[in-house]
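A reminder before we start the practical. When you read a complex entry, don't treat the lines as separate problems. The point of joint prediction is that each chain is placed relative to the others, so the output describes one connected object in space. Small molecules and nucleic acid strands, if listed, are placed in the same frame. In the example below there are two entries. Take a minute to note the order of the lines before looking further.
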Amino acid sequence: MRLGKINPKKLWVPGATFVVLALLATLPLYASTYSVILLTSILMFVILALSWALFSAPTGYISLAPAAFFGVGIYTSAILGKQLPFPLVVSLGGLISFCLALLVGALTLRLRGIYFAMFTFGLVELIKHFWLWYEIQFTGTRGRFVVVVPHNTIYLAMFAVFVLLLLTTYLVRRSRLGLALRSIGECEEAAAHIGVNVNALKTVMFAVSAIFMGAAGSIIATRWTYVDPYIAFNPLYSFMAVLMALFGGLGHPYGPILGAAIFAYLEELLITRFPYYYMLIFGVVLIITVLYLPEGLIGLIGKIWRRVRGGHYAAA
Amino acid sequence: MPLLEGKGVTRYFGGLAAVHKVDFYVERGEIVGLIGPNGAGKTTLFNLISGALVPQSGQIHFKGENITGLKPHVICKKGIARTFQLVRIFPNMSALENVALAALFGRPDGLSMKQALEEAEKWLEFVGLSAVKGVPARNLTLANQKRLEVARALATDPELLLLDELMAGLNPTEVAQAMDLVNQIRERGITVFVVEHVMKAIMGICDRIIVLHHGEKIAEGTPQEIANSRTVIEVYLGE
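Here is the predicted structure of the whole assembly.
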């Protein structure tokens, strides 16, 4: 939330956003199946990174729980996918993740800093092993098959979740809630003493961000066709969400989007061109980002923009 | 009935009695000072009043209502605002945003964004920070950051303001300005409870002073009485 006046010259950003969204919405009409599948996976990572940033960027609480909520979504699809219509399954994936996050958040958001990060990381492992135990004990198998859904449907569902997330991010940032969330990140104790109900706000936003992770999980599960707890609750998805968001920059919602889009595309490119070196190149890119781009891509773009325009308080 | 009243307020940290069975009261319209050597429990007492800490025994009443153990955001909405010993501003937000947030969230009646901004402008002007309202709070001087905290506390529309070492770290000119500010706050009908180490300041502005030592109240009275009290002199200067 910026308190300054709206600059008409900045209208090209919403304009460009609209054009890109329109192009993405109509993608299945003109693009190849390969592009649709690729874009599905890019959008999935964008959703993970952006929904992570929705809570963690303003508050400064580093959550490593995305994989937990993502996995809950995946299993919602695996268990209910055959009985219920696809949109309902996706909504349920989001809803169950929301409830779980509400519970977990209420219990643990009093933890700060590294303790919160450790706990959320532990949550992924806890759910994974609990579920593994449950499956072997009660269903007698380790994995499950997931109902198959056409590629275009998967893509459009992912796109719809992305649009909803974008809208949520925009509304939160504009509202007084966005300002209150930022005040928690800046100084939580002071925020509480000027009347912000910090625990309730943190818990609710943590849970809201989990909705989108869960929904993305229940959509992508239908493309994977087979899942087991190791696939569904893979902590790599937590790390990816955090790294992509940091790579893009947390200063603006376009940061995580850009970071996730580039990262996900790079992964695809590297894995096909350099199957033996792709992890290595990935690591190098990451180190360079952390060392030289502390504010991420969006910070770099802002810096160049200010240099071109020649003012230093352009962002203030 | 006093505006704020505490009875037998006690808080231990481990085996250490930070505040032990302290009785105190603050009348409406007063400026009350809280003094004592380092570690006497002054800030702990403020934390107990503002809800940052919960007393292990004893009760605190505000306007006759028991507020013991309530959360800080609830106590703030009831009309108690505070500043911090070490400034706790929102460093990356502008001065205006710092104060507007308090006006948005700290009042029982919800203000619109526009009203909150007007309110914030008003209090920034009151503390003399209008000129720097757009500057990120981290770039203000210490004296101005302390003023910003006062403006932020005032924007929650309090009846009682707790000032925790407003003058620590300020130079003599700034101390004089801060004393002036406290008097202006009282003229607005806001009751003030101050923790302070700067003796000249506390003797000059307070109607009444409470002295804490090792978590217990050892004296209470007018600045004159406190300055002449044998117990207080012994505590501060040794025998």
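Discuss with your neighbour: Residues 4-237 of chain B form a domain with the Rossmann fold fold (CATH 3.40.50.300). What might explain this?
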